[in-house]
Design brief:
This protein is of the alpha+beta class. Helices cover 44% and strands 24% of the residues.
Length: 82
């Protein structure tokens, strides 16, 4: 799977303001910004993203996905700190 394919799958499953992906085809590192994360704890945010991947996680098509998840406000604050 390519980064573009993975990005398209996540974007199709949830509203995202920003997604960056890096990886080797099986092990991925993602930064995802979505208003859907408002009021959710980190584990709930990750579960929401995993839900968009569905069987791809079960079938090992995506072996590992490490995530940093932000609401738009959190993302703006993180970018201001750079």
């Amino acid at each position: 799977m390519t980064a573009d394919q993975l990005k398209d799958i996540i974007s199709a499953g949830m509203a995202c303001d920003h997604i960056t992906l890096e990886g080797d085809g099986r092990h991925w590192y993602a930064t995802i910004v979505s208003s859907e994360f408002e009021g959710k704890r980190s584990i709930q945010r990750h579960q929401r993203v995993y839900a968009t991947l569905g069987a791809r996680m079960q079938s090992d098509e995506v072996h590992a996905l490490s995530m940093k998840t932000f609401t738009p406000a959190e993302w703006a604050q993180a970018q201001a700190g750079d």
